[in-house]
Design a protein that fits this description.
By secondary structure, this protein is α/β, with parallel strands linked by helices. It has 18 helices and 23 strands. Strands 1-5-4-2-3-6 form a 6-stranded mixed β-sheet, sandwiched between helices. It has a 6-stranded antiparallel β-sheet with strand order 18-23-22-21-20-19. A 5-stranded mixed β-sheet has the order 10-9-11-12-13. It is globular, with a radius of gyration of 24 Å.
Length: 572
């Protein structure tokens, strides 16, 4: 079907006055029609995401219905329809309408469907899927994407986000020649509404470890060294659930950044609703300074990611990288699970683009560690493949963490609770998270990681990746390239658009202060935004002065990142 023909079909099916008006305004502009109607959004690393607007290359109510119909058809084909489906949504302006449409469409197909009765964190939806033994779940959210985006995450009966080949089968069922209409929707009362407070209570009861219990006096009081926490939800949906989780865990209530505490999908005052971006934690840090707090926590808008800032030895704020936070949580969770080592194996996982310090810790502590493709749909796969093992921890460097298998996805709420607990345990020893990272570096080697990204068109990124594959660099930052691994190799069980590059131990002339470190670089297109992403890691297995070596490695990775960005993605 030509884009102009599809436009008319779409206009007839579109229930949204805003997108219908946009189609009428744009239909006489060939470039606009091509941009909106010549391509279809596809499932990426974490679902379907794109700018809101009309057409199959944008997120809108027709796309939500189209995906729901495809998921429903796959449920019926797989014999899972009787298990039903559950739908959730975040606080972005159009998320509620998309979610209601998706739920009514599924119910109209004869699939028992429930919807969470209010904007809620993604981990609550993932938990409901397991709690209800449902066949599928849909979450309308764009997570940390820019304010103009929206998206949809799809989960299957195993509790995880859909993976190949299931995602491709669902895409194949998204028939643009016959779009869902209002007549395909069940009445609103035919969709079960789940009380949001009950959903929060069920989630917290399943995911939050209870405090130490003394039968004579009840739950133990928080230890005196427990840090004072400032928390920001970044105008997302995390505050209510996190507050309840802290109370159940007997943690002191956090200080909230009040103007970012309640859901507001326009994200006022935030440069991006992404805790990885510069400036997003400024108001939280200012409140922490004003109140003398020790720790700053932030969730992204759908509360499945966690960002942390701590004070360094001089009292200045330091934002932990995703890998540093992952290493600390991995160390903590291994300690909590150590008593079970004698009765069953312990397993963990991290993505291939994440740092390898957590893997080194697991090796040293006798925990079986799996490195997976990017995305929690892959990170949780080892948990499914080893049902008799004790799940310890999973993470990806983009601030995604799993500290419990009561949710088979990343979860920024339960991870926040465990981080506050570990910070309290470290404070009782008289040290902080940064000092603990130094201790771990002395134990398993110094690992320093960094990341860079370049915003560019998909065409420019594809061209850069092709150039990298056909003409890989011989040297980077003065070091010889010693190995290049192309993850699109068809011999791999799940090929991925990723190139991994390793560098020689030292510069060719051996001069300067460049340490003899193992350097690894991963380059891939983002699965959620129009970005090329570069991940870097330098490792000294036996460091000397850790602080000095850490500074040297940081400078080395800065040089590597600058050269890679300039040489590969200048076209962007």
């Amino acid at each position: 079907m030509r884009p102009t023909e599809l436009l008319d079909v779409w206009l007839a099916a579109d229930p949204d006055p805003w997108t219908r008006r946009a189609i009428e305004d744009g239909r006489d502009h060939a470039a606009w029609v091509h941009e909106h109607f010549s391509n279809v959004l596809r499932f990426g690393t974490a679902g379907l995401r794109g700018a809101t607007g009309p057409g199959p290359n944008r997120m809108n109510r027709v796309m939500a219905r189209l995906v729901a119909r495809a998921v429903g058809a796959e449920l019926i084909s797989a014999g899972l329809a009787s298990r039903g489906a559950v739908v959730g949504f975040d606080a972005r302006p159009d998320s509620h309408d998309m979610a209601v449409d998706a739920a009514r469409l599924l119910a109209g197909m004869g699939i028992p469907t429930a919807i969470i009765g209010g904007a809620a964190p993604t981990p609550l939806l993932a938990r409901q899927l397991l709690a209800r033994s449902a066949g599928a779940a849909l979450m309308v959210t764009a997570s940390h994407n820019p304010r103009g985006d929206n998206g949809l995450k799809a989960y299957w009966a195993d509790g995880t986000q859909i993976r190949p080949p299931l995602d491709r089968r669902i895409e194949a069922r998204m028939d643009l020649s016959s779009l869902p209409s209002d007549g395909d929707l069940a009445a609103r009362h035919e969709v079960e509404s789940l009380d949001a407070r009950s959903v929060i209570a069920e989630y917290v009861g399943a995911t939050i470890r209870p405090p130490t219990f003394d039968s004579s006096s009840g739950p133990a009081d928080p230890p005196p060294d427990m840090p004072q926490v400032v928390y920001t939800a970044l105008c997302g949906v995390g505050s209510q659930t996190l507050g309840h989780a802290f109370a159940v865990a007997s943690l002191p209530p956090p200080l909230y950044v009040e103007h970012q505490r309640h859901p507001d999908g326009s994200f006022p005052g935030l440069p991006y609703p992404n805790p990885e971006e510069p400036g997003t934690l400024d108001d939280a840090l200012a409140l922490a300074d004003e109140q003398g707090a020790d720790l700053v926590l932030a969730n992204d808008p759908d509360a499945d990611r966690l960002a942390v800032a701590v004070r360094n030895r001089r009292g200045a704020w330091c934002r932990l990288s995703g890998d540093e936070l992952g290493t600390l949580l991995c160390d903590w969770m291994i300690g909590l699970a150590s008593d079970e080592r004698r009765t069953r194996p312990l397993i963990s996982a991290s993505s291939v683009v994440s740092g390898r310090m957590a893997e080194a810790l697991c090796t040293a502590r006798g925990v079986e560690h799996h490195r997976t493709l990017t995305g929690f749909k892959w990170i949780m796969e080892p948990r499914l493949a080893h049902p008799d093992a004790r799940w310890v921890f999973g993470y990806e460097e983009a601030l995604g963490y799993s500290v419990t298998d009561a949710v088979l996805d990343k979860d920024g709420i339960s991870a926040a609770v465990e981080f506050v607990r570990l910070a309290g345990a470290l404070a009782a020893r008289g040290i902080g998270p940064l000092e603990r990272l130094d201790e771990l570096a002395a134990e398993v080697g110094l690992h320093v990681t960094a990341a860079a990204s370049v915003r560019a068109s998909p065409e420019a990124i594809s061209s850069a990746m092709s150039e990298l594959r056909s003409h890989p660099p011989r040297t980077i930052a003065g070091r010889a390239v010693t190995n290049v691994v192309d993850w699109l190799d068809p011999s791999k069980p799940h090929p991925a658009d990723l190139v991994e590059v390793e560098l020689a131990l030292a510069t060719a002339n051996g001069g300067g202060h460049d340490p003899e470190a193992q350097v690894r670089i991963c380059i891939r297109p983002s699965g959620t935004e129009p970005k090329a992403k570069i991940y870097l890691e330098a490792v000294i297995p036996t460091p000397g002065d850790i602080r000095t070596d850490r500074r040297h490695l940081g400078k080395l990775l800065d040089a590597v990142a600058a050269e890679m960005s300039a040489s590969l993605f200048a076209v962007g």
